[in-house]
Design a protein that fits this description.
394 residues; elongated; three-stranded antiparallel β-sheet
Length: 394
């Protein structure tokens, strides 16, 4: 087993909700020591909301919090208090990376902008995660995943003209932003290994959403054609690609190439289509897409999606039946590769395998490691007791 890529790197996770904590979580899975900093009292708001288990949320350990809470140490400190600020400053002096997702105005008020933090520790990688990034009139605007899906144009592409805009069923912008931040931090660490200097990583949720729509944006900018909501039609615009109802369930077809259409036609018993002038070439199929979709839809309704999936996959046709999450997690690639349990303490992992050991430490209560972290920063027991008595540290 190889050494963890980030072994020996200390990350301060001064974030809340999903995107920021996820970024620090991913860095922890790559071997970094992650110390999560929360304000004494309520802590990260996500402790108390998210997920379907209200009892755990009430106890301050919601399933949404647990998702990216494992593998971390927990320090509770009031950064706004002068003594708490001193604790945080000492911590920054020992750190390699700071991940935070506070508005710039908040950082300015606390004297913790990238200008302040990198003056404290010139080798620090300061990763700031906000809705709209720095240096624009919306830099201080608050934003959540659902807001970014709306403002980015992504929501307007989802659904149909009948349904209106629909958000995705999971907070994909939050987790994509977490991955974006982790990539930025890794890049900055690589640069530091060469020049010895820290840097500022400015992560925008909006730009992350735009990145997820890269080909759509390119097409719009080059052609001027406004994208329209396409429901379950494929991005390729091929008439033989998309999601179709079956006798039972739905099947998603990815039939975009001519060879794939030939395989489809033979698999569904319609080899005659290949001699039909309307369907014989990609151009003719596109010109007669309504007729093709009508005929293909009628055939797919004669069997269940499960049956069609077996038939089509055995013929080499790209397809997948629509599954529930429970069904998806039972798929061989999910079970054999262990995504849902490969992370710290058996939580979800990175979307790739790295041959390194991960922490077995589960999500903790707020302030679980406050005393040990303060000891490492040079505070003696009398100092720690004083800070805890004043509720500056929890």
């Amino acid at each position: 087993m190889m050494n963890a890529p980030l072994a020996g790197i200390k990350v301060i996770d001064w974030t809340h909700v999903l995107a920021g904590p996820a970024c620090a979580y991913y860095l922890g899975q790559l071997g970094a020591e992650v110390i999560k900093v929360e304000r004494p009292g309520r802590g990260d708001a996500m402790r108390h909301r998210g997920g379907s288990d209200q009892a755990q949320a009430s106890a301050g350990i919601s399933t949404a919090f647990q998702t990216q809470g494992a593998g971390k140490r927990y320090l509770a400190v009031d950064v706004a208090d002068p003594d708490g600020h001193e604790v945080f400053t000492r911590l920054l002096c020992t750190a390699d990376v700071l991940v935070e997702n506070h508005r710039p105005a908040t950082l300015e008020r606390l004297n913790l902008t990238e200008r302040h933090t990198r003056a404290t520790n010139p080798r620090l990688i300061h990763c700031a995660m906000t809705g709209y990034g720095r240096d624009n009139p919306m830099s201080n605007a608050p934003a959540y995943d659902v807001n970014i899906q709306a403002i980015s144009g992504l929501m307007a592409l989802t659904g149909t003209s009948d349904t209106g805009p629909i958000r995705t069923g999971a907070p994909i912008i939050d987790y994509a932003t977490g991955l974006t931040g982790a990539l930025g931090v890794m890049s900055a660490l690589m640069a530091r290994s060469q020049n010895g200097e820290g840097s500022f990583v400015d992560v925008s949720m909006l730009e992350t959403a735009f990145t997820l729509m890269s080909s759509t944006i390119t097409d719009f900018r080059l052609t001027g054609t406004p994208p329209q909501p396409r429901g379950n039609a494929a991005n390729s615009r091929s008439p033989s690609a998309g999601t179709f109802p079956c006798w039972e369930g739905y099947i998603s077809l990815g039939v975009n190439e001519d060879a794939q259409f030939h395989a489809l036609a033979h698999a569904i018993g319609q080899a005659a289509w290949l001699r039909n002038p309307q369907f014989a070439t990609p151009q003719s199929r596109d010109a007669h897409r309504e007729a093709l979709v009508e005929k293909l839809s009628a055939i797919l309704l004669t069997k269940s999606a499960a049956d069609w999936e077996d038939i089509l996959l055995s013929a080499g046709v790209p397809c997948a039946r629509v599954r529930t999450l429970a069904d998806a997690l039972d798929l061989p690639p999910a079970v054999d590769r262990g995504f849902a349990t490969r992370g710290p303490a058996g939580f979800t992992g990175l979307p790739f395998n790295v041959d390194t050991a991960v922490s077995n430490r589960g999500p903790s209560d707020m302030g679980t490691d406050s005393r040990s972290v303060l000891n490492e920063l040079g505070y003696d027991e009398a100092d720690i007791s004083k800070l805890m008595k004043k509720r500056i540290v929890g």
